[in-house]
Design a protein that fits this description.
It contains seven helices and 15 strands.
């Protein structure tokens, strides 16, 4: 019974708060400024945990954005934007995670070779508590909002700003027959300017996609 309770405690606050979005580099710069005010640090997720300053983070996002919004697809570059983001305040030390994710869509009855872009910003829901009993060491998760309220409030501030400049991404694809279209409703948001750039991109032309809700 004790073992079952431990498993339940592990699951109770597991998972992540998430926001998926696609915005222009200029809009991304305004979000970076919020991070800069908090003296947040960005690290690549490589073995060395290479630290990147804000200029490098911006350049990485700009390259990622331009790959998907270009009129011609580049073959010499693989889109990649992955960072662990460490946040420190007086009494707390925690972090977010940002990484590029592909948005799959059907194309004439099959999945497309390419995917639409978004960045997923995530923050853990659980705070790990390490314990020990007669059966050995174990851990469980408590609500992160109780242990790290400042970090949670900052994550909320960031996501609210992104939500203000974006709306849900809605686009249509060709179904199995050319004269029938299907609306796609991925759990991602996009800004008006990014929407305009994406409409004119190679990926929209290649798959004859149609942006909805301009």
């Amino acid at each position: 019974m004790g073992g079952e309770k431990k498993e339940m405690d592990k699951l109770k606050n597991s998972g992540f708060y998430k926001l998926k979005f696609f915005i222009t580099p200029e809009e991304f710069k305004s979000i970076l400024m919020l991070f800069e005010h908090k003296q947040v640090q960005f690290h690549r997720t490589d073995y060395a945990q290479t630290k990147h300053d804000y200029d490098l983070v911006y350049a990485a996002y700009e390259a990622f954005y331009k790959y998907f919004t270009a009129e011609e697809q580049r073959m010499d570059y693989h889109p990649f934007f992955v960072y662990s983001i460490s946040v420190k305040s007086d009494h707390e030390s925690t972090g977010f995670f940002a990484r590029n994710e592909g948005i799959s869509f059907p194309y004439y009855g099959q999945w497309s070779e390419d995917e639409l872009p978004c960045i997923m910003l995530s923050f853990p829901k659980g705070f790990q508590i390490n314990m020990a009993d007669e059966q050995g060491n174990y851990y469980f998760y408590e609500d992160i909002r109780e242990h790290q309220p400042l970090a949670y409030a900052f994550f909320n501030e960031i996501t609210k700003d992104i939500k203000k400049m974006t709306k849900p991404l809605r686009f249509s694809v060709h179904a199995a027959t050319a004269d029938v279209s299907q609306e796609q409703k991925p759990p991602a948001r996009i800004s008006k300017h990014a929407m305009t750039d994406l409409v004119n991109s190679w990926i929209f032309k290649k798959y004859k996609l149609m942006m909805n809700g301009k």
